[in-house]
Amino acid sequence: MKDEALAEVGVRVMRLGMMSPVEPEAVRRFAAGLEEIVVIEDKTSFMETQIRDLLYGTENAPRILGKKDATGQPARAGRRRVSPRAACWRRCATPWRTG
């Protein structure tokens, strides 16, 4: 899906080309007004942790999901690679929210 098509269904996409350091203001601007951020990355939860730490304690901070869902369970089984498109489709089709 193209970013425009995702935007039409309420999904924002932020691609971080450089792993470190993450630009704090760019992340805060992206997160403004969101209830939830789903971080998709290979192998480790490096970016997920950085984003969570950057937004921790900020007013109206969104929930950060990534390697684990809202219940603390693994968000995907095994080590199979998941494309952002597939993750978005699954996220929209099967909400991770429990409440």
Mean pLDDT: 77
Kindly give the count of domains.
Answer: 1
Segments where pLDDT lies below 50 for 5+ residues? 93-99
What is Rg? 13 Å
* Biggest sheet features: 2 strands, parallel
Helix and strand pattern:
HHEHEH
Report the sheet-strand fraction. 5-15%
Largest sheet, spatial ordering of strands: 1-2
Distance between the termini: 28 Å
Shape: globular
Figure out the total of helices. 4
Please give the number of β-strands.
Answer: 2
Derived from helix and strand composition plus strand pairing, the structural class reads mainly alpha
Helical content (DSSP H or I, runs of 4+): 25-40%
Q: How would you describe this protein?
A:
The protein has 99 residues and is mainly α. It has one domain. It is 34% helix and 6% strand. Helix 3 (46-55) links the parallel strand 1 and strand 2 (63-65). It starts with a helix and ends in a 6-residue tail after the last helix.
For this entry, give a set of tags:
globular, about 100 residues, single chain, 4 helices, disordered C terminus, mainly alpha, two-stranded parallel sheet
